[in-house]
């Protein structure tokens, strides 16, 4: 009898800073009370930060799906310990890695370096490779590549110091949205991110640079609708039904954007006021244009297996690519699966397809 393929689910569990300065990282598994402690620790003023809790649920959802599909599974938390990680790989010798690592040492750029370790060791893994992970994290570089290749994206500037800004050489039209240039998951985006005057722009830019110790990306704000375009596969990749963020539930004085709170902070007005609709009610010609642009961006940025392309649709129905997101959240209630479900895939179907691409690459290597 053939031995089942062993899929190692590799992830990095975030830590929570408590008032006394101690940091905790909890795991789930045999001792399920850890999960309860994590949720409790992540609560603040009746709100729960799902960016901290979600990784636990996601890895368990994936493991359940893989086991239902007949794979042998193990789960490993990187926890910033490379020696332990390498020892685990040597001891377990997984056939394929389901890669969920998004950072190392709280530094998102190391996501690409972890994928590089898989490459050097010759282990097949899910999702995009190092170049794509690193480049897509660099929002400005991604936009440069998109622009150079004729894919529409909002005009922008990369600002390393607020002193660079001058009303005489701004060359952008207000309103402007200000973001960290090398963060993901809407980190650094809140209700003050859109500015309408030069003084507001300078203040917000200085805040972002000081807060995140990185350059600020300032770009023309596209007033209109926001779309998430999920794509799966490689030869050829398949565009799934388009999902739209419905902003109609937000208070009238809130900007119509996906802030960090809207994405992750259950219990906030932003979270409750932004809901996903799939499929998005779009005219046929607009739908086809959006899908075509998203697919071009997916291929151009070297995405593999699965990704999500976020697009802003102007009031005149012109699409602009906001970001290309390789290895997006795969929780069964996340936006990516919303599109997969509308397409007709169960959660296990979608996970099976994604891991199947990595299994096929392993077979080809042999």
Describe this structure as you would to a colleague.
By secondary structure, this protein is an alpha+beta fold. It folds into 3 domains: 6-127, 3-Layer(aba) Sandwich (Rossmann fold), CATH 3.40.50.20; 155-220, Dna Ligase, domain 1 (2-Layer Sandwich), CATH 3.30.1490; 223-365, D-amino Acid Aminotransferase, Chain A, domain 1. The protein is built from 12 helices and 19 strands. The strands form 5 sheets. Strands 13, 14, 15, 17, 18 and 19 form a 6-stranded antiparallel sheet that branches. Helix 1 runs antiparallel to helix 2, helix 2 (50-68) crosses helix 12 and helix 4 runs antiparallel to helix 5.
Short précis:
The protein has three domains: 6-127, Rossmann fold (3-Layer(aba) Sandwich), CATH 3.40.50; 155-220, Dna Ligase, domain 1 (2-Layer Sandwich), CATH 3.30.1490; 223-365, ATP-grasp fold, B domain (D-amino Acid Aminotransferase, Chain A, domain 1, 2-Layer Sandwich). Helices cover 38% and strands 22% of the residues.
List its salient traits.
366 residues; alpha+beta; Rossmann fold; Dna Ligase, domain 1; D-amino Acid Aminotransferase, Chain A, domain 1; 3 domains; four-stranded parallel β-sheet; 38% helix
């Amino acid at each position: 009898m053939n031995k089942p393929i062993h899929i190692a689910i590799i992830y990095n569990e975030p830590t929570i800073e408590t008032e006394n300065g101690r940091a905790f990282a909890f795991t789930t598994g045999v001792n399920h009370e850890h999960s309860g402690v994590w949720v409790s620790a992540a609560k603040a003023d009746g709100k729960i930060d799902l960016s901290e809790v979600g990784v636990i649920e996601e890895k368990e959802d994936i493991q359940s799906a893989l086991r239902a599909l007949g794979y042998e599974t193990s789960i490993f938390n990187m926890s910033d310990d490379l020696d332990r990680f390498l020892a685990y790989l040597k001891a377990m010798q997984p056939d394929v890695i389901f890669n969920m690592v998004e950072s190392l040492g709280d530094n998102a750029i190391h996501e690409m370096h972890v994928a590089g370790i898989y490459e050097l060791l010759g282990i097949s893994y899910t999702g995009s490779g190092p170049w794509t992970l690193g480049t897509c994290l660099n929002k400005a570089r991604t936009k440069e590549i998109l622009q150079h290749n004729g894919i529409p994206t909002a005009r922008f500037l990369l600002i390393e110091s607020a002193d660079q800004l001058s009303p005489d050489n701004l060359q952008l039209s207000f309103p402007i949205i200000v973001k960290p240039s090398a963060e993901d998951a809407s980190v650094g985006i809140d209700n003050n991110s859109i500015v309408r005057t030069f003084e507001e722009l300078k203040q917000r830019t200085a805040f972002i640079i000081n807060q995140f110790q990185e350059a600020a990306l300032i770009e023309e704000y596209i007033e209109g609708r926001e779309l998430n375009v999920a794509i799966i596969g490689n030869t050829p990749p398949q565009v799934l039904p388009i999902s739209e963020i419905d902003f109609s539930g937000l208070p009238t004085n809130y900007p119509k954007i996906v802030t960090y709170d809207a994405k992750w902070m259950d219990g906030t007005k932003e979270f409750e006021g932004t809901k996903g609709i799939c499929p998005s009610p779009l005219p046929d010609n607009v739908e086809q244009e959006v899908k075509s642009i998203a697919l071009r961006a997916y291929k151009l940025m070297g995405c593999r297996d699965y990704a999500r392309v976020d697009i802003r649709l102007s009031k005149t129905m012109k699409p602009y690519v906001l970001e290309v997101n390789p290895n997006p959240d795969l929780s069964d209630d996340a936006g990516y699966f919303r599109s997969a479900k509308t397409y007709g895939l169960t959660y296990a179907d979608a996970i099976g397809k994604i891991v199947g691409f990595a299994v096929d690459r392993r077979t080809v290597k042999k």
